[in-house]
Amino acid sequence: MTTRLITIDDAQARNASRKEELTATHLRDLKPRLGISQCLLGDTVRYDGGHKRDVFLTDVLAPFVEWLPVCPEVEAGLGTPREAMHLAGDPDAPQLLTIHTHIDHTTALRAFSQHRVQELQVSDLDGYIFKKSSPSCGVYRVKVYTEKGQPSKQGTGIFSSAFQQAFPLIPVEEEGRLSDAPIRENFIERIFCYRRWKTLFEHHRISRGAIVQFHTRHKYLLLTHSQSHYHELGRLIAKAGQYTPGDLASRYGPLFMDALKIKATVRKHVNVLQHLAGHFKNQLSPVERAELKETIQDYHQHLTPLAVPLTLIKHYVRILAVPYLVDQVYLNPHPKELMLRNHV
Ligand code: SF4
């Protein structure tokens, strides 16, 4: 990094730096609450008396979230150990059968699932991590067997299916997919965004001003996901005065969470990085401008991770105290200790 050639206002820079520290503390305090398939935490609840402890979840993510573990099969009374089960029949309405004795547990598990998701209504969850491939917990491509014993990967676990129907806004993922860096970064970004969104309702009565401010802080983050959602949400916020605060929230929240589901790509990040740089590039020396441009290009060409240009941009936002950018969630969407942007 080159030596700064321009004069900066020390007090403003200190303020920006303080704001960044506060953001980091705020992120640590935010602690999203996640439902989780209990076997992923190392509890011996699997059909064979074992577990599927996931080290990323238990050792890396755990300090930053609060878990709410659920094992649907044990809670439904099937005991441990128990005979292994699989899904069979119609992938849209599968049966849950034991593999060897063909005992049908569909009704018991469906009834349990309906009851448990009702209970979870008051649990204030911000996300859920399900065990992949499980006939109860799997979300994607769970095997469903035909009468002839042929598997097709088209099903969803009985409990996870009931959960997703009851909570369409809550981000869900499988532990297997979380080993993919962009999916991991996206999921963790979404759970922190959802927590932040719900915080608007917790500490004070929801106001239109709070929603407008929320939108302003998330603008660049939204742009890395979907331009069309960004514009639609912008139009909604522009007409905020026409709605009651509750009505505005019920329109804004689902659209906002939908936007975040759309994959952020390198190209979209580059576009946002260039927008951010546009806010302060006239305050940089020619050497600094060239260095920043090259750093963004390197990221564009997959030579460096997103963390590299972002670190440089955050440095300038801090020392130049760029007012509009200091509060942008895009710069600090999740705890830095997770180092998620070192891998995307
Ligand atoms: S996958 Fe789900 S049902 Fe199976 S052991 Fe884990 S938590 Fe229990």
Question: How would you describe the overall organization of this protein?
Answer:
The chain has about 350 residues and is α/β, with parallel strands linked by helices. It folds into three domains: about 100 residues, no CATH class; about 150 residues, no CATH class; about 80 residues. It is about 50% helix and about 10% strand. The chain has a four-stranded parallel beta sheet. It has a four-stranded mixed beta sheet with strand order 4-3-6-7. Strand 3 and strand 4 form a beta hairpin. The structure holds iron/sulfur cluster. Iron/sulfur cluster binds next to helix 3.
Main features:
four-stranded parallel beta sheet, four-stranded mixed beta sheet, 13 helices, 49% helix, disordered N terminus, binds iron/sulfur cluster
Summarize the structure.
The chain is α/β, with parallel strands linked by helices and 344 residues long.
